[in-house]
């Protein structure tokens, strides 16, 4: 049926089996519902299917994109809505294969995203302790269908709130920081990456490692948090050889789930701006 690589507020790894499905243009049973993430973000979408273990669901966003996400990241009312949807759509929910993969597309992929710890550096001043941590991911794609997947491309976007900047003051030759969020909230930042997947036959695998996103944290008095960046999540998709979107999913929470690729592209890339 569906699987996802949406993780609950950052588990270290997520493993899911997903069906590659073109963005739906046809009618789907059921009305759109406004989902609310546990941190307050809103997302209007239709439920398309629920996994056999009832942990994930496939939803169709208003912009026509469909993707997989964990149910538990949404409010209790939303979780009840999904249960009610399952009862009302029992015949559709039972149409899945024994492995839990929806037989709606030509390809079935097993996708695993593993969060990889990068390098970490600490700096100290008289009052503050500053730490820079690199965050990156390994994305692994396995083709479970009998058809060979040729010429596909994997794209990803990492989004975070860039609230703190740690740097070396050249004049004073000491480490310091600027807090961008305390006085004026800033929109999230993002980076993009892509890689061409090699020809994937049945049970063939391809994997990439993302670029690193630096997350800064500042503590006062040694252990009291003063300011920090926040990694919102990773969104990835697979494109066919003709450029059509075959699959889109995300890892993180409701904030990254609610963002479209166009919205993410409009965000600042600090590698360019700085």
Brief descriptors of the model:
about 270 residues, mainly beta, 6-stranded antiparallel β-sheet, 4-stranded antiparallel β-sheet, 5 helices, about 10% helix, globular, disordered N terminus
Blueprint (SSEs and pairs):
Blueprint: E1 13-19, E2 33-36, E3 42-50, E4 56-61, E5 66-70, H1 76-88, H2 90-93, E6 108-124, E7 128-143, E8 153-161, E9 164-169, E10 174-179, E11 189-196, E12 205-209, E13 213-220, E14 224-228, E15 230-239, E16 245-252, H3 254-257, H4 261-265, H5 270-273
Antiparallel strand pairs: 1-6, 2-3, 3-4, 4-5, 6-7, 7-12, 7-13, 8-11, 8-15, 9-10, 13-14, 15-16
Provide a short characterization of the protein structure.
With 274 residues, the chain is mainly β. It has helices at residues 76-88, 90-93, 254-257, 261-265, 270-273; strands at 13-19, 33-36, 42-50, 56-61, 66-70, 108-124, 128-143, 153-161, 164-169, 174-179, 189-196, 205-209, 213-220, 224-228, 230-239, 245-252.
């Amino acid at each position: 049926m569906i699987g996802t690589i949406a993780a609950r507020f950052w588990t270290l790894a997520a493993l899911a089996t997903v069906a590659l499905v073109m963005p739906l243009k046809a009618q789907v049973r059921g009305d759109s519902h406004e989902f609310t993430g546990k941190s307050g973000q809103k997302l209007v979408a239709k439920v398309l299917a629920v996994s056999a273990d009832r942990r994930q669901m496939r939803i169709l966003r208003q912009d026509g994109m469909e993707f997989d996400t964990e149910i538990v990241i949404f409010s209790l009312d939303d979780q009840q809505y999904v249960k009610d949807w399952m009862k009302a759509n029992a015949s559709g929910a039972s149409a899945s294969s024994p492995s839990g993969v929806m037989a709606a597309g030509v390809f079935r992929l097993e996708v695993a995203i593993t969060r990889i710890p990068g390098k970490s550096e600490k700096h100290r001043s008289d009052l503050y302790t500053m730490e820079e941590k690199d965050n990156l991911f390994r994305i692994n794609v396995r083709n479970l269908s009998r058809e060979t997947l040729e010429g596909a491309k994997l794209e990803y976007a990492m989004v975070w709130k860039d609230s703190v900047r740690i740097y070396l003051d050249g004049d004073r030759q000491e480490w310091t920081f600027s807090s961008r969020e305390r006085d004026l909230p800033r929109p999230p930042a993002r980076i993009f990456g892509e890689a061409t997947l090699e020809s994937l036959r049945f049970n063939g695998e391809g994997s990439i490692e993302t670029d690193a996103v630096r997350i800064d944290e500042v503590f006062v008095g040694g252990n009291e948090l003063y300011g920090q960046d926040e990694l919102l999540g990773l969104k990835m998709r697979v494109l066919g050889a003709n450029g059509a979107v075959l699959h889109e999913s995300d890892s993180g929470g409701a904030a990254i789930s609610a963002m479209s690729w166009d919205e993410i592209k409009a965000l600042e890339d600090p590698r360019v701006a700085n």
